[in-house]
Amino acid sequence: MSAFRYEAINAAGKTLKGVLDADSARAGRSQLRAQGLTPLIVELAAQRSQGERGQRLSLGRKLSQREQAILTRQLASLLIAGLPLSETLTVLSEQGERDYVRELMAAIRSEVVGGHSLANALSQHPKDFPDIYRALVTAGEHTGKLGIVLSRLADYIEQSNALKQKILLAFTYPTVVTLIAFGIVTFLLSYVVPQVANVFTSTKQELPFLTVAMLALSDFVRHWWWAALIAVALIVWIVRGILAQAGPRLAFDRWALTAPLFGKLVRGYNTVRFASTLGILTAAGVPILRALQAAGETLSNRAMRTNIDDAIVRVREGTSLSRALGNTKTFPPVLVHLIRSGEATGDVTTMLDRASEGESRELERRTMFLTSLLEPLLILAMGGVVLVIVLAVMMPIIELNNMVQ
Questions:
Q1: Tell me, what DSSP letter sits at residue 230?
Q2: Residue 30 sits in which domain range?
Q3: I want to staple 93 with a disulfide (CB 3.0 to 4.6 A). Which of 105, 202, 296, 300 is the partner?
Q4: Partners of 44 in the β-ladder
């Protein structure tokens, strides 16, 4: 049986939408008529999902991180409870909060009922389920521990989402302060300074250099602001094009790891993702080389990903995981020490989880420290800019007052 999406009208003339299981579209229409409904549309859920995917994604229609975490948690709970995969997907399809979620689950169920593995079914929806997600599902299916892997994957997604939210919230205040400061300075340059300039022009007074420079900047802001926006957009486009190339991107990522303040944030964030993913894979019984390769793909920093490739070569040659990672000189020493302890005790997974939790707390602490440092610096910078503008306006007034006296 396959999943069909339907639209039908009941006796009261109300349009109903939903998903039903049937051997064919004709059988689905028969089911609807038996329920006293007049079918309007009966089509495969997978067909509609694929046919409208471009339109939906162009409008930003896809699984949110919250929905992905909820679906993964529900899927893991039902599988651990012993419910067959097809019935589990049916339950998720019926309980979806949005039409898109229900149709997505129905489409995946159709693929699974048709004989495909869950990982293959998820591969038809790469925007909703990224590569690492599908890799973990594949590992769970191969080891027969799909429920456990999905449960740990749900923990990872929830923790990752919580960490992202904390980082975003920490940088929200500095961002708001920066935008307000930029708006105030723009207002002063485009409105206040020109008003004062008219007074000085009528007196034919020789203006100080600071005032002349400020008037020139004000004139540029009022008449050439569009050119500045175009220049900024052009610079961003050029930089993105350069960083899209492998060589410059690798060089930039290497610099990012050593950048003051932000370098530790980049290193910590990638370490959390690597340790969490590697812990999930080792818990599922995935071979260490394959687990390292999959965990390395979660790293956003290409320099660290290159170091993981070197570590894989060393492990394949017989080097221990802790020594291979230690030789890269990239990951925090705490991670290497904990992995070494796990190798000695035979419980690497627990040590990876501890390393991930510890590095996550350290990342939060560093983020809070950085934002607490940025806030007064931004306020001082804003005050300094306003002070320069005020001085540029007041200096001619003071000189004029001295001439009158």
A1: H
A2: 2-44
A3: 105
A4: 4
Same domain, 17 and 70: no
Structural contact between residues 113 and 101, judged by C-beta atoms closer than 8 angstroms: no
Instruction: Answer yes or no: do 93 and 186 share one domain.
Output: no
With beta carbons less than 8 A apart as the criterion, state whether 336 and 326 touch. yes
Average pLDDT over residues 261-265: 84
* Nearest of 50, 34, 31 to residue 125 by alpha carbon: 50
Q: Are residues 252 and 330 in the same domain?
A: yes
The answer to whether residue 296 scores a pLDDT higher than 80 is yes
Asked if 221 and 293 sit in the same domain, the reply is: yes
Amino acid of residue 54: G
Residue owning tokens 């997600």: 133
In a domain, 370, yes or no: yes
Alpha carbon 142 to chain centroid, angstroms: 28
Q: Please state the length of the chain.
A: 405
Q: What are phi and psi of 63, to 5 degrees?
A: -65, 130
Entry pTM: 0.71
**Residue 90: alpha-carbon gap to chain centroid:** 29
Q: What is the pLDDT of residues 124-182, one digit of tens each?
A: 888 888 877 887 888 788 878 888 888 888 888 888 888 888 888 888 888 888 888 88
What DSSP string describes 331-381?
Answer: S-HHHHHHHHHHHHHT-HHHHHHHHHHHHHHHHHHHHHHHHHHHHHHHHHH
**Each residue's pLDDT tens digit, 186-225:** 888 888 777 776 766 666 667 778 878 888 888 888 888 8
Q: Are residues 33 and 69 in the same domain?
A: no
How far apart, in whole angstroms, are the C-alpha atoms of residue 12 and residue 71? 34
